[in-house]
Design goal:
With 119 residues, the chain is mainly α. Helix content is 68%, strand content 0%. Helix 2 runs parallel beside helix 6. The chain starts with a helix and ends in a 7-residue tail after the last helix.
């Protein structure tokens, strides 16, 4: 993953936000129908970078996409900008940006209230 883990550590996400980020990055990984080893590695880096332990990961796996979107929508704009970077980097972690991944990211941005600012 190109985003430095140290950079992620500077952003203090709440536990509910961490779970939501996990859910949406997982959705991006699944969007193209194939899970690449590099995506799994990027996900591990992300979990370490935002400070997700095994218990929080287990809770995140029980979180729905709708619940995640509500949490992400309630984040500050600066955190949403970091989320945008995370999702984009997750999408290209397999060295290919799939159309379905891009559509999911764009829809996520619309759902959480960012769009024009990131273009």
């Amino acid at each position: 993953m190109t985003m430095k883990i140290k950079k992620l550590r500077k952003v203090q996400f709440e536990e509910i936000e961490k779970k939501a980020i996990f859910v949406m990055t997982h959705e991006v990984i699944l969007a193209d129908g194939t899970i690449h080893p590099s995506e799994v590695e990027a996900m591990k880096d992300l979990q370490e970078g935002i400070g997700m332990g095994p218990d929080l990961i287990a809770e995140a796996k029980q979180t729905s996409v709708d619940e995640a979107l509500v949490s992400l929508h309630n984040m500050t704009y600066s955190k949403k900008k970091v989320l945008a970077q995370i999702l984009e980097e997750m999408a290209i972690s397999d060295n290919h940006l799939h159309e379905k991944e891009m559509q999911l990211i764009i829809q996520t941005f619309k759902n959480i209230g960012i769009g024009g600012e990131t273009e």
